[in-house]
Queue: 2 jobs
Job 1
Amino acid sequence: MRRIYMDHAATTPLHPEVTAAMLPYLGERFGNPSSVYGEGREARKAVEGARARVAEALGADPSEIVFTSGGTEADNLAVIGAVYASGVESAHVITTAIEHHAILEPCHFLESLGHQVTYIPVDGSGIVDPDEVRKAIKPSTVLVSVMHANNEVGTIQPVAEIAAVCREAGVYMHSDAVQTAGALDVNVEGLGVDLLSLSAHKLYGPKGTGCLYVRKGTRVRGLLLGGGQERGMRSGTENVAGIVGFGVAMELAAREWKERSERILPLRERLIEGILERVPHTRLNGDRERRLPNNVNLLFDFIEGEAICLKLDFQGIAASTGSACSSVSGEASHVLLALGIPPEKAHGSLRLTLGRENTMEDVDYVLETLPAIVEELRRMSPLYHG
Ligand SMILES: *Cc1c(COP(=O)(O)O)cnc(C)c1O
């Protein structure tokens, strides 16, 4: 059976150009970039070439890119690294209630060390009010971290406005842009951020690589200590093949984000309209307008999103309930709860995230398949009466 993959917020397949660029570094070009002989110099050149590509795509300087093992490590480095580097004994961090766990867990860790964290609430569509950030800033505030777009409901945040508030207050601004690179314009000058996280596997690059952008002069202490790679900000032998693939993926993302988004938007619109039309007792989660061009997140009354996903999988469609993490713990999504959705309803969510390979035929197949699945599950639900 043909498979239709609609979970691009979880991960994406490698772009063929990315695979081609990586292959030599999984084979004959195996050198360690820190070695001084030919093989090492070749690897160093590859890493620095990728650094230049990533920097160019972001409007940054190559010296401002720190390669990491992905989005999670970049987020940890930004939050914990900025607080450690500040030297403030009881530092204050501001973030939001809807961040990825890769931000929230480091924040909880900092709290356990005696630091303070303010979690700014969001409105019903998941948008952060820059004024709330302004009000939360105090003399001990070191960092504000607000994601560029949410991975579950796709809501796009006013990052540039929040960054302006931070700059005025002399506070560092970090943004997790893992979901937006390749879908929106991600330019560090346009956004005005000091720190920005990226992950290659969310933009048709390989898993296990990404970076933290660190604006010149921004003080961040490295968390991995050792050989001093990445200017001392991230020790450990570089993932050369991964970094090369990341560089190509970012170059493609910067070149193609607009046409990718313009192509995918009508697919998203047809999915949203089509499902809302065909399935009663259903609503869209997140903001209708300020959302990622590939994100559809719906709430179906009376049933579990998990069950819908299983049935879709049997029909050849890969989708998720929201975040990969909440499906393991069985807890309701913290993002949906922060949007004001009651816990008993929050389990009824389904996220479909489109990507490069999806077509209108894929969308039509989902529209043919999903309503019957929902109907069948509802008929079995004790909560549903007709
Ligand atoms: C996927 C994701 C991460 C984690 O990135 P990894 O490279 O998988 O560690 C962080 N933040 C957001 C918003 C994500 O979607």
Job 2
Amino acid sequence: MTENTNKSGLPANLQLDTLAVRMGLPPSQYGENSEALFLTSGYVQSSAESSARRFAGEEEGYTYGRGGNPTVTSFEMRLAALEGTEAAISTSSGMSAIMLMLFSLLKAGDHVVFSQSMFGSTIKLIGSEFARFGVESTMVPQTDLAAWKAAIKSNTKILFAETPTNPLTEVCDIAALADMAHNAGALFALDNCFATPALQRPALMGADIIMHSGTKYLDGQGRVMAGALCASAAMVREKFLPVMKNSGMILSPFNAWVILKGMETLGIRMEAQSKRALEVALWLEKHPAVARVYYPSLPSHPQHALAMKQMSGQGGAVLSFDVKASNAAQARERAFHVLDGMQVLSLCTNLGDTKSLLTHPASTSHGKLSEEQRQLAGIGQGMIRVAVGLEAPVDIQNDLAIGLNSIQ
Ligand SMILES: *Cc1c(COP(=O)(O)O)cnc(C)c1O
């Protein structure tokens, strides 16, 4: 866990791009310019007195790897600086960050309101696992503010959303939901995986907790798993840190080190990948074999204006589209035909890579839903999700065209 005090020695008021490259602990006595990787599980204490103070929480310093690590600290400092929060705490994956948040803030009898369009494992974790421990929850349509409001009860502790969502790129109003939560005495938590702080800084719009899967765009190169929560120093210190230490979901220093490097190019990657995604989305919209494209930068997107305001005018790197078909079986066959025709892009259930990754949500991430639930979620058999990477847009288009052109 790291509080965003001035441990870095950097001047105040640096811009996001600068913080992404520079924020972290100062170098060790060796003056390394690239952040060091500290692979150690224990820390030698200078005296028994100092060791006692550290264990009592009266002195800063590392004691044991489950409680902290300097490379992990640098990652947390960098992420908190980018998100504009006082502190951050990192975990072994995005899901363990959500686990840490819920476990730290809820008890039996509490209630959570969350979007029905959230990440599949998030829905399972809240709706099934936490339900076994007496935590109540209500799922609401992501973009329907009235439904969020109507779902709030006297025991509601957290409103939890994700924007844009996977795979439909639905956008919710962060400031409005934060206000609604605060008026009800609840916290507003936001999964900021898709936009990242390079495009969207929810803390500046009132969100109390910003959750990340570092596995996605923070690393950005498809190498390691990581997660994090960004919040006030008091919340991180008093709520999250004790649970993190006792439950052992700490981020590995190696993964923190990989992501520290990844974050140095976050701004330029998000800009370049958003630009490519828009180009591909515009091309897909004109293709005769495509029925519909979902991407926040397209004027046809239902929350286009809100998205552009909230996401620094960019749409992010994920888009989805439906192939044209006259029934569900034909739609599935055609979507599979497009995916199996690719010669360059990857059929891979991940996102946030420099390589473009494609998936068929109806048979993978949303494969366990009943046909009725899937219809409700708006995910048809003809839908393909594209997490656009850094390849030349024309090559991405040509690869998709192999399948698309032969189903007209
Ligand atoms: C991947 C993802 C998660 C989960 O993160 P992991 O690192 O895979 O545990 C949560 N939310 C969103 C939006 C994601 O894309």
